[in-house]
Fold:
Amino acid sequence: METKKVIGKRRFSLTVTTLTFAFLYLPIVALVILSFNNARQGVAWTGFTLKWYSELFRQADIWKAFANTVIIALTSSLVATVIGTFAAVSLYWYKSRMKGYLGVLVYTPLIIPDILMGVSMLIFFVALGIPLGLFTIFIAHVTFCVSYVTVTVMTRLEDFDYSMVEAARDLGAKSHQVFRKVIVPMIMPGIMAGFLLSLTLSIDDFVITFFVAGPGSTTLPLKIYSMIKFGVSPVINSLSTLLLVGTLFISLFGSKFRKLIF
Structure:
């Protein structure tokens, strides 16, 4: 009887897991298949074609938006990683009366709605007379990415062996040498995780970018949104497929060389 119950629970768990993965990944599979469909609209299969990929590479405005997205994502993630790393180390090790308040400021961007943050950033830039464009998008992305980097690095610091720092100081290392040659290498996995998380969030962000973007500063999410307002074009399916392939390639590449890096 007990064996039958165990088998029944396993089958139920397997069924639920299978249905969950099917719900998550079948739309992605359908999108990839439809990117090769000859039909301009609808889901009826009318033949295999690569013309939508050819048309995609002829649309300069899409690639301009893609270039804006990459530039913003890389620069904002790098700056946010540097600021967030220093913030995490400071909050974790240094004692101050302001530490609690600073911790609240770090966690605030993680919990407030994106639309609220987007509106507040828009009001801030308008009040200062800063013209909306790539620079305002960069500032906005750095603002919310810093919090994610700080939290990620602080999680890594929880397992930090402080005796390594004491040993380095006993051997005559100065503060900047300890930070550069001991602390940074030991928390590098957390730093890289924070950078990659920031990169992903920046590339994927739509709501905040929608409020702080100006003329000529359209990013890829904004461009895709403007295209789907008139119906889902097969070009969008082709673009999404290429982004999916690129993401999988980067993930496999990073997984393969992770041990070599760390």
Summary: The radius of gyration is 23 Å. Residues 14 and 20 are 10 Å apart (CA to CA). Residues 60-93 form the longest helix (34 residues). DSSP finds twelve helices and no strands in the chain.
